## 1
Amino acid sequence: MPLSNNHARPLWWKRSQPEKIAAKSPPNFPPNSVHQSVIVRRVPDKTLALWRRSDSIAHNQDSCSGARGVGTAADDCQNFCMRVPKSYFALTLYCLCPLTGVLAQELTSAETQALRSAPQGSVLTLSNIWSHQRDLPRIPLEISDVHGPQLLLSDKPEYFQTGNGISLQEEAKPGLVRLYIYHVPQPDAGPKTISAVIQNLGKHPLKFRFLRRAFPKPSRDYHLIGKTGLIQFFDSHPDKTFRRIPPGGRMVIDPDMDATTVTTDELVHGLYEFKINQPARISVFERDPGQSSIAVLDQLPKLPRDLPGYEGSGAGRGLFLTSDYDVSGENGFAIDTINGPMRLLLADGRKDAWVRGRDSIAGLEDGRDSGNYGVIYRVRLKYRSGDGRGLALFITKPGRGGRWCGGQAGAVKVSRGTWPEGTVAVPTGRVAFGNPGEMVFIQKFPPLRKGKTGTLEIVYSPPGASCIPTPMLLVPFQP
């Protein structure tokens, strides 16, 4: 089913969720609680008041200082008041904030020409917009918690510095489960195996079936693994058969991971979604290659979140009952090309807070997934071509570098535009990007006829091995 500018969604967009799957509960996570409500968080942007005025604008020092907190071009505004007709609205903005304002954030003629011929997934250098990305108006959003599968994250301790042990052990209810494993073995200790086991806690046989799975070959190229993992996950298909576990029995979740050995600094990255019909205990651990995952589980120590004597590592661990968000424009907001470039920002830990959950090993009821890794955002935004231009969608990185944030890679799913719908590697043609000014070209949406409203769709999950957030920019362009 193709994606188009109507309300039809392709099969990969839809979710089938059991009626009694565990969902977001109060902080104490009662064992049998099921919470069905949908939580909506509104993420407004004060700067959009500038764009929404229908007849005139009054701008003074108070409005400028009010906009500073959300990172806008208002930082450079002057202390004066001014009223103008709406027909001169764009010109007024240029006058209010010269150089760092809207004009400086438009594409240059050379950048427009490069965009016209650039292939999907390519890296473009758009220095003007990139250097002022924090000044761009942020799209006002409604982020609805639709719960999704039970999310199990195993990324703490990220490095098994002290040797073999269990990094995650949680009980899951019957229904859908998403499991994200992100670990590096004990350094300088020879080959190791990192694996996961599920145990049937129910009174009846447990049926286990993969809906999605991704296990890239471990390596020391973390960006490549993070990107490949998302591509495999987005493009995978449900297994046609299921495996069966007797009551009290155990089973290796991914036989391929269980048969793999890794050494110093090699990253093990597994992202899975599966369905179970009985309560189960899921454990993630490191062991020696000669040991049996089923038998050794009872002998391994349970590891603390942060190992004594070592710097804390990893985004978090535990069971999180929020794993899927639906994202739309606040109050039906539509992007209009006449207003210039805008910024879509997800998983920033501020306006879009980290999900919280339970770490049973640590006895922690309010642990964080710092980065919302493993969470899936399904974005639907309306757009218009008020000035006859199209919209280009880019992914970039914040203007910070450092030891761990110099590069970025990943993948997204995007609806049809000039190019067909599908998964786009971020970037294509090379592993990562991240030099100043660089952006990855995801899709271009041709201009709509006057008075028409279109819908663009994005499926996004924060990429492993990359720093968060990963801003997306929607930039008008002349075809």
## 2
Amino acid sequence: DAVGATLFSGADWVRDAAQATGTSARLVGAWDGDQLVAGVAGATSGSGWRRRFMTPHLLPHTGFLFRPATTDRPAHIESERSGATAALIEYLQAGHARIHLTHAPEVVDTREFLWAGWEVQPRYTYRIELPEDRSSVWDGFERRTRTAVRKAEKTGYRVEPTTDIAELRRLVLRRAALDVRNRSSLCPARSFIRIRVTSGNAPLTSHIRARHAGAAW
């Protein structure tokens, strides 16, 4: 339920991505007394002046996480998250020569990062509603996208929902490993997923996989 938390900020994803890229997974927490109020997920590599803390190259984002609001007072929420952000920034800067994090779309307040001298590059995520009648969604795709989908259907690919998160993680890491081996960028780390699909106001708990001749891709 943390603000900024996604499928990819979970310990399993961070650990697997770090292992695949030869880095070390790291989860750091910010505490207020005995209460965990924020954290940051990432990976470390190098030592000394080359030590880095980053979003693992095989994940679209990790970054900062904040506990859900415990009050309806905006000033209190802002104060808690700003203080936790500043503390985490100070900790990261003290132990790392370079830091590069890609945050989830829910993390929108960049002031503490700017005040600390960080370079901030805003990016955008498209959220696509999935009504019962999907014709409006289909009509909104570019012509070349619709053509690519039709071509895939003719060659035997099909799309189906799945709740098997382990399979999804395995497929992502396998594809990313092939890209690294081939020195290609078919699945670049920070553009792998730009769309968060929602149904109404709630994120879907199922995910999508494509199959061809019985194999998942």
